[in-house]
Amino acid sequence: MDIELVLASGSPRRKEMLADAGYDFSVVVSDLEEIHDDTMDLYSLCEENAWLKADAVASVVVGALVIGADTLVCIDGVKLAKPGSMDEARGMLRRLSGRTHEVCSAVALVRKEERPVSERFHVISEVTFRELSEEMIDAYYEKVDPLDKAGGYAVQQERKMIIEAIKGDYSTIVGMPIDMVVERLAALGICAGR
Predict the structure, then answer these.
(1) Alpha helices in the chain (DSSP H)
(2) pLDDT attached to residue 194
(3) In the chain, at which end, N or C, are there fewer CB atoms within 10 A of the end residue's CB?
(4) Whole-number pLDDT of residue 38
(5) In this structure, is residue 146 part of a structural domain?
């Protein structure tokens, strides 16, 4: 039996990765406010936000399997979500300058009706930044809008300007660990091209 697949994210990067993997899906974005709880560890918080988004959409598109995702950057135990302003974004890049940080992307799969599904997982990758001067930050932000990106940067845009090295899964840093998503969907009987 075919199951409708829904992505609970307006992220163009996540849409592109899922489409490139060969899936037919629709997009329904939840207006749910993400939680920002400093008492939660990085992985739990990321998974909880992914699950809240997927669960909210699954309540609307009954019977569909919904994919929710969330990405956070973490350095020194401080979780960096999307910056609220350019000043905040600049502060994030200053904090990341010359250092290695973690990027966590979590995914939740939720289906409410017959054969219900409720699972969560996350993948961690590491990114090492170059030493950034104020001029380098200015130059980067002339080319990249940071306001919808965790940590105030995008690994897929102008990365040579700010990033020295990547360790781990690239798609995790972009916003969704696509290989793990494909694996979990296949385990649920949902293959690309359906």
Answers:
(1) 12-20, 42-58, 86-96, 134-143, 170-174, 178-187
(2) 44
(3) N
(4) 83
(5) yes
* Residue-level pLDDT at 2: 73
H or E segment to which residue 103 belongs: strand 100-111
- How many residues comprise the chain? 194
5: tokens are: 């697949």
What's the chain's Rg over C-alpha atoms? 17
Q: Give the per-residue pLDDT at 21.
A: 94
| Structural domains counted in the chain | 1
Global confidence as pTM:
0.90
> Domain for residue 193, yes or no?
no
Print the domain residue range for 122: 5-187
Each as own residue / partner, the long-range contacts of residues 28-32 (CB below 8 Å, 24 or more positions apart, any chain) are: 28/57, 28/60, 28/61, 28/66, 29/57, 30/56, 30/57, 30/68, 32/56
Question: Residue 179: what residue type?
Answer: D
> Residue 1 pLDDT more than 80?
no
Q: Are strands 5-7 and 65-75 parallel, antiparallel or unpaired?
A: parallel
